[in-house]
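Q: Second attempt. The first request was missing the SMILES, so the protein and magnesium ion are both included now.
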Amino acid sequence: MQQKRTELSELGEFGLINRLKTYLPAQNYHANTITGIGDDCAVLDNGGDEYTLITTDILAENIHFDLAYTPLVHLGYKAVIVNLSDIVAMNGTPQQITVSVALSNRFSVEAIEEFYKGIKIACENYKVDLVGGDTTSSKSGFFISITAIGKVKKDKIVYRNGAKIGDIVCVTGDLGGAFLGLKLLSWEKEVFLANPEMQPELTGKEYPLQRQLRPEARLDMVLEWGNLGVKPTAMLDISDGLASEILHICEQSQVGAFILEENLPIDTEVFNTAVEHNLPPITCAMNGGEDYELLCTFSPQDFDKIRKKMPDLTAIGVIKEKELGAILQTNSKEQVKITAQGWKHF
Ligand SMILES: [Mg+2]
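A: Got both inputs this time. The predicted holo structure:
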């Protein structure tokens, strides 16, 4: 009898994770395992008044990055940042990382040094210790796996499932820049492949390029609202695009959300450049991803305490009843259902 073959593309990333959950052990051998899969980090309770946070990510060449336009120093930096961002998304502070790489002999020692230079700068900027890792060879392609460890006071931890009806939905920074940056780089690559004599035309587009190549984790935001004595009710970092992250909060908190397009923070340079290239800025913001900003919800009382003091935090909507679902009201006052189109690697 022939076994049924299911294509990975049928399931997508989240479908695959859900299906594999059936095969995972029950996570009840140790009392210090608080939560496992399903949030930005795993949470461990090793006693005292803090939790330990752990997160890990793989970056694969030509899936997550293209060395044709990614300087290795930026790649090293970004590989660290995407992990620190997940610690921050639990309202935590990153402390250590381990770095594992698989590389082929097409890389020179100098190239690998460039990559580690980026890792070093990220560690210095975020005061994180590199405490271990592994290096191995690869037949083709460059693979990076980083694990980050952090901490958070037990009463300060923020999960994805705490959003309540009436909470204010906020994002830090601005959205869509990283996706536009990626588009600009891949368009330039096509132009270059078609005609190697052509020089890249990227001046005046520094901001989206920086957003794509050298993102930051918003630890500053977590420290800022912590100092103001508040914490979000739910939070995650925007790695796959705002739309898919809103759906995560709605699903895990069992709520709906009403988001206003007119409130979405999009940088002027990003907005104009997107329009110039016939790319709707709203698509960059909703479905782009890789901005590594934070999507968070605050109680109206807490939001009142910080709204005037945190200019880099923008209210984009409100949490509603689950029955409403996740709705985006466009600038033309049309209400559309938010759907996730983030991730399609397979
Ligand atoms: Mg995350």
